[in-house]
Amino acid sequence: MDLPDEDTIRILITTDNHVGYNENDPITCDDSWKTFHEIMMIAKDYQVDMILQSGDLFHINKPSKKSLYQVMRSIRLACMGDKPCELELLSDSSKVLGYSDFTNVNYEDPNFNISIPMFAISGNHDDATGDSLLCPMDILHVSGLVNHFGKVLETDKICLSPLLFQKGKTKLALYGLQSIREERLFRTFKEGGVTFEVPTIRDGEWFNLMCVHQNHIGHTNTAFLPEQFLPDFLDLVIWGHEHECIPNLVYNPIKEFNVLQPGSSVATSLCDAEAKSKYVFILEINYKQNKSQPRLIPIPLTTIRTFKMRNISLNEIPFLKPHDKESVTKYLIGQVDEMIDEANKETKEKLRQNGIEIDQMNQDDDLNELSITIPLPLIRLRVNYAGPTSSNKSNSGSGTITNSRIIVNDMLDYQVENPRRFSNRFVGRVANSNNIVQYYKRKKPTVARDKDKNAGPSNDQVGNLSVNNNENSNNNGELQIELLVNDLLNKMQLSLLPEVGFNDAIKKFVDKDEKTALKEFIDKELDNEVDLLVSSGQFLDKENPEDIKVLIKEVKRANTSRKKSVLSSHIASEEDSVNVNRVLPDDPSFTRKSLDKIDIVSRRSFKPTELVSSVDKTLKMQSNSIFRKSSPDSIVISDSDENIQSSDNDHIIMSGDSDDNRGEDYSKQKSSISNQSFTRRKNKLTGKLQASNSSKRKVAKTPRTDILESFLAKKRR
Amino acid sequence: MDLPDEDTIRILITTDNHVGYNENDPITCDDSWKTFHEIMMIAKDYQVDMILQSGDLFHINKPSKKSLYQVMRSIRLACMGDKPCELELLSDSSKVLGYSDFTNVNYEDPNFNISIPMFAISGNHDDATGDSLLCPMDILHVSGLVNHFGKVLETDKICLSPLLFQKGKTKLALYGLQSIREERLFRTFKEGGVTFEVPTIRDGEWFNLMCVHQNHIGHTNTAFLPEQFLPDFLDLVIWGHEHECIPNLVYNPIKEFNVLQPGSSVATSLCDAEAKSKYVFILEINYKQNKSQPRLIPIPLTTIRTFKMRNISLNEIPFLKPHDKESVTKYLIGQVDEMIDEANKETKEKLRQNGIEIDQMNQDDDLNELSITIPLPLIRLRVNYAGPTSSNKSNSGSGTITNSRIIVNDMLDYQVENPRRFSNRFVGRVANSNNIVQYYKRKKPTVARDKDKNAGPSNDQVGNLSVNNNENSNNNGELQIELLVNDLLNKMQLSLLPEVGFNDAIKKFVDKDEKTALKEFIDKELDNEVDLLVSSGQFLDKENPEDIKVLIKEVKRANTSRKKSVLSSHIASEEDSVNVNRVLPDDPSFTRKSLDKIDIVSRRSFKPTELVSSVDKTLKMQSNSIFRKSSPDSIVISDSDENIQSSDNDHIIMSGDSDDNRGEDYSKQKSSISNQSFTRRKNKLTGKLQASNSSKRKVAKTPRTDILESFLAKKRR
What we know:
Chains A, B: This is Double-strand break repair protein. Chains A, B: Its main location: nucleus. Chains A, B: One of its GO terms (biological process) is meiotic DNA double-strand break formation. 2 copies of one chain form a homodimer. The first copy, chain A, contains 20 helices and 19 strands. By secondary structure, chain A is an alpha/beta fold. In chain A, a hairpin with a 4-residue loop joins strand 12 and strand 13. In chain A, helix 14 packs parallel to helix 19. The radius of gyration of chain A is 29 Å and the shape is globular.
């Protein structure tokens, strides 16, 4: 492809590359980074002016050295070079990159020779965690290979400042918003906590582009980002997080902007949405175009493994009988064989189009030979094994069975082979030979059910986007951490640790592999509780340990009742509550050649009197006042983060002292979790409490670390 | 400091920065990277031409995002800039960096503006692991911030090629050798497997500098790198790995080279060697100098936490009685108080020298206030609690007691307080308030004992280097993995898995946090064993499972006896067996301005007839022949790596099949470890064995993953 003309900004758009996905699998281990490399090479070939990545570049937020290495290698190969980047940066990048030590965009840093700058936001998979709140994108940013933008430091007060670019006569304002927990972001939008800054000069000349990484359509009332929340001065929204590729712009007639959902570049779950073709996109923006019709070129990705999916209801197959396991198995094998053939044909066709011809002999002759020369396909066969006459409604939707033999609780259901045993027949012919087949039981016809699931609430929403949220729709028998924890808490009488925060800490420990999450959580709880006790004058007067116990019980009781009332639900209304700040710069005469950065917003912009909104101003004011009225209690919707962060944690944990006479077992337990913090706290108290406390203490059991470790082991399997 | 003159190559030398050490500790978490930053800033201030790092830049081989971020940030701030690097590269760097995708040294890459190139080797802590054999230095290399040299791909055939630099009239040949397992490297040297390439032109004009990262002095016969092994054409060896800083060049009169042991920049263990002052070094090389006397300037590091260590034998204190626990505790508290005062004085003096004056009021007034303004010291008090008259020799050296109360097996020993309880008194005044005191019991006077330990075999060696190997000397009650594993193996009858390889895999799992190490090990074993069975014609004939069992038992018996004979010890002799290859280039006329890289060695150089050794050639030939004579068996000295890698693993593990009727528990166990591999193997066998095997199979128990996870948890605590 030729160079873009002097007024055209050409952008490569990709998202959800999930580099590192399945990297321990012997067959698919390299899929993710190889596709990422292909994408980077496309960017280079097309000589784009910029690469935009809309989150989840990495599959986990602690990428392996291999993932990091491959990503850095590909970016270095694609983005560095002598070709000058023709984008002129018109704004002060430190407003966007100010969180970092390196506030300049990389292509303006004199120490790097960047020909294609890459701009990326962090997603929910590669989010910032730990003490230092660093995400993998920060590593790439400090290395100078990527510009990590859209970083949010306070989730309840978000100010989005654009990066302003110009090439020839075309102007681009680029906004980014990192992935934020859905309910949190929803609330912040509803409360008017999100402010967009817009350039005030050359109004209307800017193409306003925004990258987000959120659920596109809600699974609960508040667990998504409604398009209505976004301001209508935007021209295009790049929507990361959703893995289904929709290879065209979808126009939102109410907000008058386009939405592009590029989808993932690797299939991370074997569902309908991921079975569709995968693309990256070249976007061309030119000042002569109608802004609602930028040029979009989908580029099919050639390194994607062919993925075939099929749904079968056994009760629709006339010649199969429920008790005849052998025939059912035979039939299913036939189905898989067909799918493999289809997939291989498709793969070969793809390879042929890219100039790779598969040997004719191989094609007809030997299937094993063939499987060596072309990449093995991913195959998923979903089988409804519900019997033809069983109509027990309470059984419908009883879930899928993957790891154990099907327990025949309804004698009329079809007998099927163990799924792993079934799948293993196809070793060497498919890439996922452990989980080809997935059994489920449902009375409704399969087709209706799937439509139901995937396109569910889309009619309420603008556009007809069908959605796959790979976090929520995962019903492959994954462990539900919350259930396990609650179960544990019930069994172990851990009533003094706040449940919500505990769940959150365990989630971090399991999902994000944050080894210190539990220790930090318990340390913080202990700190809060000791502070509470120390600051209570009432407490310090008491010398009798029994009185102290009574005090603690009271605090605990008060807490429990308060917490219940806080969890009342909050009805989501759909008003627009986005703030858009506009400020006239001191010098309104704007010349393109001026080297001074445009002052987008100054301190003054936060005064409400100066707000000039391009969206419905009165509506915004109304909505603000609506939310001011509601009581603070009713706003909290299962918002565990805040409960941990705030200092009003008032459950009390009492831990034993370090008397040598205690049982060895207990002391190990204690030291494994919060030894240091405890002893620190203890010393704080020692002066005043030593005499009264050393005699009797109630020991609250804390969960043993190896239980948690075994969760981890299960999860990782 | 002024710029070095036009003929002087100025090098900053550092090693063992261990960035990330103790990074979860609330007090010392930032010590390691802050000191690394100080070092980088020294490099910048002194305007050095090059930074040399001799291994263990990171404390672990999977550094946290924070460690990676801080290191990259410091390097980017120090090493990038407009000042041109005045070193001229005269050799083809792809001979050294050829393992990478980026074979150019970073300061010659047109895409980076490097003013100070950094060259680093990988140590034993940041070594390469995993599938992709990547170490953290590879990440830094691909980012363009560091030149990762000294990488060895085959440990039994090492060819060391130098990077050749010139500045003005001074020439530098730089060699690097990554950390290699001690016994392995020892053997490779002994077998003549290490070859040094040397430039053949302008012979004698080169300053030959080498970086290594090995034990300096042996703890066993072969677990170190003797200086004698290194060729005597070298002028200076930078010795990483040893944490004691020896702030001067140590001349080896036999080899006629200097050795510099820079030591670590953060104390990773509280022992004598780490209590010494810590420095980095500026080395200046000039062609006018005598090569054995380069200019060396030690730069004291100011961000190092003051560390005071004291040894006490309670039986030398006349007024203390063994049964008087209270007085002993009081005395020890007094000792620690003294040490804290000493340390604080030293810290203040250091700060004063760096222009930071501690408020006079604070100094005398309030100790708590003081501790906020100056960094808390590290304090270690070693206490010999052996009683005055106890002379039970079998008790001497019974080890230290850290976590549990001392069990008084000798009534005459001094009664002492629980060490953690004792240490916790000093919270807020010392940085290591969990482990200030360390009790041990030993009849010999303390001073002699410590000399014994630290300076042990140094008299046999050249120079008078006292040594601390922080891996081996750790007697803080750390878990001995081998013992645990052997214990487990005995209990669980895991006799079919080779013990050596199993130990190694668990070490990787625990020490290096390689989650797939066990899976990979068992997969490999299974592969080998199935291959063995399949390839055995005898086996395939048998239809009776009993006969198969007999066959397996035979193989196993044969193995066990073979393995024992292999483990015979190997007497280390101290001959020099280094190969030095010299090759005349096609064009012997060498001009400085010639842009052609010097051809150091061509393919021809490997022919023995062309070897021209600068070291004792005849000796080398002799030594080669000596080692050829010894039988291959007798060379293997606890060399577990090779046992895993080689395909002659002949222990057999039989695993159960996936019959649905098996217990749930067992199937979980199995799938957690080697599900995929097993089923793959199984399918391989299915065709021929299905009939005979499906009836009976002996299940060998494999250890459950959560046991290992709990090791991990203990280790990390």
